[in-house]
Amino acid sequence: MSLKSKTAVVTGSTSGIGLAIARGLARDGANVVINGFGEPDAIEKARAGVESEFGVRAVHSPADMTKPDEIDAMIALAVETFGSVDVLVNNAGIQYVSPIEEFPPAQWEKIIALNLSAVFYAMRAAIPHMKKAGWGRIISTASAHSLVASPFKSAYVAAKHGVAGLTKTAALELATHKITVNCISPGYVWTPLVEAQIPDTMKSRGMTKEQVINDVLLAAQPTKEFVTVDQVAALAVFLCSDAASNVTGANLSMDGGWTAG
């Protein structure tokens, strides 16, 4: 349990990839701050499950990642509760699909705020605590779209490219402080959100479930397999280990070969 007595803050972690990462870090011994919106009962079940299954402490921060003052409060909560912020995982994100000339400005601003600016503000708040401790791990969930583009996803692609650049800059600034900064770039990940999209796509395109999965969702992934949340979590846990102490400034693809072509 290499993270025993350390504290991890994971944004957007009440479900999906974020929750899997939080659980993975807790399994490795870290106390965790989970963050995000959702049904109170479901959030409490997830939080209590982390504590009971892994023997660590877990608290929930309802901070809105589009609001810098609430991001500061989330980091402060971690420090006040556990005494440190050793691991920061920037995972919160949203998507919106539209041609550029029709893209609603409010949606552009929201996606940039949540998918990119929140990463900066969380880093800004957490880094002083990591420098003081002389150790830290910063991991951001980017996307295959941090490396390649798709049409009609201008804000998301711009934000994820930004996360990759911010990761490199932070890694260089923190290279002598025993703080590593990396991002993970998954392709399509099997989550309840993705699964829920399938019936509507079947109906709108007149396709079977298998056709939607292979010809729409996994069209870009040569393996024709979804990435799993546990695979992303395992990579995040590795990046927190001593074995990964010289992995920094990296953008690690986990996309079934999407960006290899």
From TrEMBL:
Question: Top EC class per UniProt?
Answer: oxidoreductase
Q: What is its EC number?
A: 1.1.1.30
Please give the Gene Ontology molecular function terms for this protein. 3-hydroxybutyrate dehydrogenase activity
Mention any Pfam family matching this sequence.
adh_short_C2
The record's Gene Ontology biological-process terms are: monocarboxylic acid metabolic process
UniProt KW keywords: Oxidoreductase
As for family, the record states: Belongs to the short-chain dehydrogenases/reductases (SDR) family.
Show the NCBIfam families listed in the entry.
PHB_DH, PRK12429.1
Q: What is this protein called?
A: 3-hydroxybutyrate dehydrogenase
Q: Which organism is it from?
A: Hansschlegelia zhihuaiae
